[in-house]
Amino acid sequence: MLVVQKYGGTSVGSIERIDAIADRIIKCKNENNKMxxxxxxxxxxxxxxxxxxxxxxxxxxxxxxxALLSSGERVTSSLLxxxxxxxxxxxxxxxxxxxxxxxxxxxxxxxxxxVDTALIxxxxxxxxxxxxxxFQGVSKEGNITTLGxxxxxxxxxxxxxxxxxxxxxxxxxVDGVYTTDPRIEPKAKKIDTICYDEMxxxxxxxxxxxxxxxxxxxxxxSVNLCTRNSFNDNIGTxxxxxxxxxxxxxxxxxxxxxxxxxxxxxxxxxxxxxxxxLFTILGDKNINVDMIVQTVGHDGKANVDFTVLNGExxxxxxxxxxxxxxxxxxxxxxxxxxxxVVGIGMKSHTGVASNGFxxxxxxxxxxxxxxxxxxxxxxxxxxxxxxxxxxxxxSVYELDK
Amino acid sequence: MLVVQKYGGTSVGSIERIDAIADRIIKCKNENNKMxxxxxxxxxxxxxxxxxxxxxxxxxxxxxxxALLSSGERVTSSLLxxxxxxxxxxxxxxxxxxxxxxxxxxxxxxxxxxVDTALIxxxxxxxxxxxxxxFQGVSKEGNITTLGxxxxxxxxxxxxxxxxxxxxxxxxxVDGVYTTDPRIEPKAKKIDTICYDEMxxxxxxxxxxxxxxxxxxxxxxSVNLCTRNSFNDNIGTxxxxxxxxxxxxxxxxxxxxxxxxxxxxxxxxxxxxxxxxLFTILGDKNINVDMIVQTVGHDGKANVDFTVLNGExxxxxxxxxxxxxxxxxxxxxxxxxxxxVVGIGMKSHTGVASNGFxxxxxxxxxxxxxxxxxxxxxxxxxxxxxxxxxxxxxSVYELDK
Lengths: 401, 401
Prior knowledge:
2 copies of one chain form a homodimer. By secondary structure, chain A is of the alpha/beta class.
């Protein structure tokens, strides 16, 4: 098998951890696998470098910030190679750029455009364990770039896709993806298998183990992803194209997002294109609109509700100021929470939504907004009911069973 | 003017120091100079990385150690570029390899084979301050290499030579090269100008400011070198091909080296090739022989004295064991010191040596060994007289005037 493994910051957070990881890699190698290992910076290291950079400027030069930050992962990669060599296993480390990761020239948030696998394959043929610094690549212009948040996961998935690896294992300090946040519902269970689309919708549940960009790329290149805990030998969560189990549950998990604010425009005038214009304005200002719900109000006027990130509410208010005469009233509410019910099984089952609404109603939780997709129901509730809503939905869909 | 500056570890040892260095660079840039700046790792950083690497192995894999250590200089280079950009001066940083420094593939101690100046020149044309990580390059095989002790100085001189820079300024935390070690002779004076050959002979005096390899390379490519203190605006020491001052002093400085041990082979048999054989044996064992003095003894036998590093005395004894019957007696003495009188002016002056011998004799210091070259007299004395010998020679050659 060709195995790509990726170890996050806490997994390589100390010399002792790197030593432990080396043993884990050797165990896998000895099972007759070819191995490529992608590593993050040692935990704390990226922040240390960032602090240095921000000493000089609130907005350090982006090209130079990339050069600076990329060194964190390179240190880990060579230390891991030293550890493996010391344990008598051939290992070579490479920066992302030297390993063949070509990116766009968008510093701090580059996109992977191509992975040239010639060098990696050559070194694998020589029986090396190939260690690659994550989070980075090189642009056509010859500049070192970094890939933004969760970039090391993305490096691993892109490499696994390009190499047609049999599996891409993402190691963190948690066991996998849970049916909901165990801090909210202690009965939450680890999910054994989940498909890409579900994982994407459960972003908030997976945030600690896997960034959405990586799941999207895994989906695009059909990479078999697996998230595991580097601190134990538990099985983790497999993220794949299609779940093979016939009787998979209707609902896979309940996600909670408290970072949104609700904007309600009541009685929007029936003027062609006004709503499109509003959202174009927000888009131009880089305001990220999440849920959008439109209903018919009185007098043929429409009611339009949408959510934005709390942090972007002020600029949203500013942007909407000159449109106040286009609607009867506008309301803003920061104290809301988005609870999402996600499951590929919804496609073929009826009554999933109504079960959930009933469960919330039984707890006297008022539903402020609803939007649905094929595999997700998102419900906005008062923030104070957030945890209760998660627990009652987790229970009604029998995720604790 | 095209100015190459190099800043050592203490000069860039903190965020505040990097900030100060940025101001110094800008001042030079504003005097209408093109600038290339070579930087070392922040002081302490290389040792931190080395400690990490040595945790896994007493002898970490050399390729990986190079990849690891090279990150120290890269961090400094991007931080300095961030600082300069924040101060509204265009600056770009490069690793040694990306900057065009091609080396041999001898990890941990690579030789610079070529400096491809195309990229540097291009960036200078765009009015950038070009920052280059010192101490490193890349081999034809595509591996990151490091240049060994004093490697950043070597990077700077090689780049200055390749660019035909007008001057190469080496910044440390001392003012320059002194006529002797001021801790031994408080009357020691800073030398304003010195030529390459003198500097090479005064290696021990210059050790804190400049490695011999850099001086050799400066000599080879006729680079005008200057060592300066980054903590003040003093003038420093110019190291050039030939001193222009007609009336330069006969002696430039007095160097002291306590790291040597003396080996005296008394009554070496008159057997062709035996002495060559002895030194070949030592060379094969990588024992570095410094002074060699041969005199005619009694019965046509020769006396051969030589010095080796204290640390290599044990292996020297071991190597000579089976030759003991080739000479009447052999003596070893670790408690010696080598005092060297250096000056290009000696070439054209007589009586320089005898003045020195008289000065030592006046202090009742016994001379154990002497060897002379065109510009240097090296004298071995008992270690307990070392400082007194330095002071009396410093005085007799009027270096305190």
